[in-house]
Specification:
Blueprint: H1 3-6, E1 10-12, E2 34-36, E3 45-50, H2 53-61, E4 70-74, E5 79-83, H3 85-89, H4 98-104, E6 109-111, H5 115-132, E7 136-140, E8 143-147, H6 152-155, H7 159-174, E9 178-183, H8 186-193, E10 201-203, H9 209-214, H10 226-234, H11 240-244, H12 248-255, H13 257-266, E11 282-293, H14 296-317, E12 320-330, E13 335-346, H15 349-363, E14 369-380, H16 395-412, E15 422-423, E16 426-427
Parallel strand pairs: 4-6, 9-10
Antiparallel strand pairs: 1-2, 3-8, 3-9, 4-5, 7-8, 11-14, 12-13, 12-14, 15-16
Helix pairs in contact: 5-7, 12-13, 14-15
The structure holds 2'-deoxycytidine-5'-triphosphate (DCP) and magnesium ion.
Magnesium ion (MG) binds near residues 49, 142 and 143.
Length: about 425
């Protein structure tokens, strides 16, 4: 063993015993869960994400489920919210229609979500995080960034060990597991927490960042969704390594401000700090078109898709919103926002979409747009959202119809079922 390998800082994640010589098992307790990294005790930025959050809580509350495949879902949308890791091995994924999930895993135990319970566990975990540092930025119900710089004195331990203790504490006191990512910036801390799930603890240091990123797909970069990945693919760019060889000016000329982000993140440069007041004030989703659009039916299609994304994000954050906001940017970069307050908060794609449609109707007057966005503000507790049929007696029927349509589309393809939303008084989308 070389001298440098000998001195890599590390410890056992089970008994926390220091372990500087890399080995297969802990010399003290025999656990294989050892953590060694040359920058282990310098890194301070963490991302923590609970493992199969809803499913883990249900397993905790019913030990008979421990080794069984468990799916949380059904309810309003008939899709999988989350699946435990046993069900994932069998091919079940988040957002999968329930009937497909049950095809993949017929013996799965399906449980309806109990949001109230999940929100309360989420709050307990957040309170524990705040004991580590005041700099906690929640991203959703089960995940947060933590900046642990300057906490070494307080905890009498470097952040890496404080985080390992935290993971143990959550297991012992709350009864579910978490995965930790530790790095020097937000981007890589978030990437790291996903590397070894469940019960993971991964470290990405400054020295290996560029090498680590080299072979990864561009979709790992924050803000590179499916559509933008396709644009990059058309330009022959698939890996982050390719971005690493490109000039900043070139990337900016091609992709605007996004180009700058690609330049920086591909090199592991990310100066964003952990924002304490990061509690969302609104949840929205928007898209910039490849070519400017003015035809109502095209705008409506985007509106529909974006409304579904907003509903999905609301669900993930355990939020609802009472004001629907439509955002449009004209071809000559003028911004138009229109909003409408609902009778009750909502987290349903259908209600967001219909309200957005109403707002869009007046704006789709032949103007050419380069961007459309939809979102909700006035965020509220999802338990208060969408009281059954109080608002619109048709709503639950429509939700059921939406589900039936989704099923047909899954079976026969998207083109089979057109819903023919009325727009501007005429029937479209035939
Ligand atoms: N969620 C949802 N619908 C989705 C994705 C997630 O309702 N399509 C909910 C259920 C999850 C919770 O949000 O339990 C947290 O989302 P994550 O993406 O962190 O997923 P999990 O915690 O379930 O799994 P992982 O272990 O991959 O983090
Ligand atoms: Mg999670």
């Amino acid at each position: 063993m070389s001298e440098s390998a000998r001195s890599i800082p590390g410890f056992c994640r089970d008994c926390l015993k220091e372990q500087t010589a890399p080995a297969r098992r802990c010399l003290a307790c025999g656990s294989p869960r050892l953590l060694n990294h040359s920058e282990l005790y310098q890194l301070t930025l963490a991302h923590i994400d609970c493992d199969a959050f809803y499913a883990s809580i249900e397993k905790r509350d019913n030990p008979e489920l421990a080794d069984k495949p468990v799916i949380i879902g059904g309810g309003k949308r008939g899709v999988v919210s989350t699946a435990c890791y046993v069900a994932r091995i069998r091919g079940v994924r988040s957002a999968m229609p329930m009937f497909k999930a049950l095809e993949a895993c017929p013996d799965a135990v399906v449980i309806k979500p109990n949001m109230e319970k999940y929100v309360s566990v989420g709050r307990q975990i957040r309170a524990m995080m705040l004991e580590l540092t005041p700099l906690v930025q929640p991203l959703s119900i089960d995940e947060a960034f933590l900046d642990l710089s300057g906490t070494e004195r307080l905890h009498n331990d470097p952040p890496a060990r404080t985080l390992a203790r935290f993971a143990k504490r959550v297991e012992n006191e709350i009864g579910i597991t978490v995965s930790v990512g530790l790095s020097y910036c937000k981007f890589l801390a978030k990437v790291a927490s996903d590397l070894q799930k469940p019960r993971g603890f991964s470290v990405i240091g400054q020295t290996e960042a560029v090498d680590f990123l080299k072979g990864r797909p561009v979709t790992l970069i924050w803000g590179v969704g499916k559509a933008f990945a396709q644009t990059l693919e058309r330009d022959g760019i698939r890996t982050i390594g390719q971005l690493q060889t490109m000039e900043e000016a070139d990337l900016m000329r091609r992709y605007g401000t996004m180009g700058q982000r690609l330049y920086r993140l591909s090199r592991g440069l990310d100066e964003r700090t952990v924002e304490v007041d990061g509690e969302a004030k609104s949840v929205s989703s928007e898209t910039t078109f490849n070519d400017d659009l003015s035809r109502p039916e095209e705008l409506v299609q985007h509106l529909r898709r974006l409304s579904e994304q907003v509903a999905f994000r609301l669900r993930k954050s355990a939020l609802a919103g009472q004001t629907v906001v439509l955002k449009l940017k004209t071809a000559d970069f003028k911004l138009r926002t229109r909003n409408r307050r609902l009778e009750s908060p909502t987290c349903l794609a259908d209600r967001i979409f219909r309200t957005g449609l109403h707002l869009l109707e007046k704006e789709a007057d032949g103007t050419k747009y380069r961007l459309i966005g939809i979102g909700v503000s006035d965020l509220a507790d999802p338990a208060l959202a969408d009281p059954p049929d109080l608002v619109d007696p048709q709503a639950s029927r429509r939700a059921a119809a939406e589900e039936a349509i989704n099923k047909l589309r899954d079976k026969f393809g998207k083109a089979t079922v057109e819903t023919g939303y009325t727009f501007g008084g005429r029937r479209r989308g035939q």
